[in-house]
Amino acid sequence: xxxxxxxxxxxxxxxxxxxxxxxxxxxxxxxxxxxxxxxxxxxxxxxxxxxxxxxxxxxxxxxxxxxxxxxxxxxxxxxxxxxxxxxxxxxxxxxxxxxxxxxxxxxxxxxxxxxxxxxxxxxxxxxxxxxxxxxxxxxxxxxxxxxxxxxxxxxxxxxxxxxxxxxxxxxxxxxxxxxxxxxxxxxxxxxxxxxxxxxxxxxxxxxxxxxxxxxxxxxxxxxxxxxxxxxxxxxxxxxxxxxxxxxxxxxxxxxxxxxxxxxxxxxxxxxxxxxxxxxxxxxxxxxxxxxxxxxxxxxxxxxxxxxxxxxxxxxxxxxxxxxxxxxxxxxxxxxxxxxxxxxxxxxxxxxxxxxxxxxxxxxxxxxxxxxxxxxxxxxxxxxxxxxxxxxxxxxxxxxxxxxxxxxxxxxxxxxxxxxxxxxxxxxxxxxxxxxxxx
Length: 438
Known about the structure:
The chain is of the alpha/beta class. It is built from 15 helices and 17 strands. It has three domains: 4-134 and 303-336, Rossmann fold, CATH 3.40.50.720; 138-299, 2-Layer Sandwich (Dihydrodipicolinate Reductase, domain 2), CATH 3.30.360.10; 350-432, ACT domain (Alpha-Beta Plaits, 2-Layer Sandwich).
């Protein structure tokens, strides 16, 4: 049987890793796929670098459309990134009857509904394991391995840059700004780290995970997104003292009122395995009704881990290349006509627990004033710490952990607490998750 011919768009870090791993493990991959898989065309703006990497193994061009329009190409791998030219290339490849593999989480989260509709129209596959959590096969697990389950909730550390920053802040007691500079020096953070530190990258990935888990269209615009830039070393230290770690989590949960879709810093108990995931590593905790909780851990980025997922998709598409489209695994796990229009809950309707830190004047009656405000909003306190004032200081930190409550009630209570004359500045609020039965 003739080999499958592949066109690679972009031979940067991941593209180069994909080309190398495919060549290195060619025999093993062929045995698994049932036929050879060859990258025969590569498109990249840096022609000299691309030619050094591929040698005589593939034709190199600066025109990516030359690849997607070439009649001999069966599968197109899109590793350019971005949401403009990448979308045009993917849609053109689909129109030309070519299967597509992509690691482009931003494009799928924002335009995935249109891309999948085009793929169904032209009877081709769009595979995207590498779009979420690098080398962790979470898409495969959710679409196939856990298909017997009604997924209840998912909580994931799905951005390595932010996890590295929080790990370093906790370990060294350094400020956010100091650790961010170190992350940039080490190459873990981009020169413009906005997508990572503001939670946008994690929200792109969470959008994809939620769609597959709950059978809903991509709903990125409805996600609640909050980053880590406002976190202080003091809050990380206080959380540790109380038995918690702070992680940037992507959380999606099925509730009777709708689906939660939120990314934000979260206190989680230190005893949870996911709380001990450090550095640039990723981890995703999935709770299914039949299997219970399962944890997926590994490298969330990098040339070879991401290449592992790209090539896994290549093998899958090769195996199913000649299959009747009706017999392929649906893009979002559920049959296209069975996707649900269940609403995404606004953050004000989400129920969780909270860490509240407030700076107050050290005088009698302060606690009574604050607890009265919380009681008026039906918020009960689970734990409380009042720090001793430093010598000569007249202000102290009070930290409270609440029981479960609805966010809108917390918003009202915080607004009232900040108006109290004994409270200095703003109240710091960080959400908490036990990641147990709730």
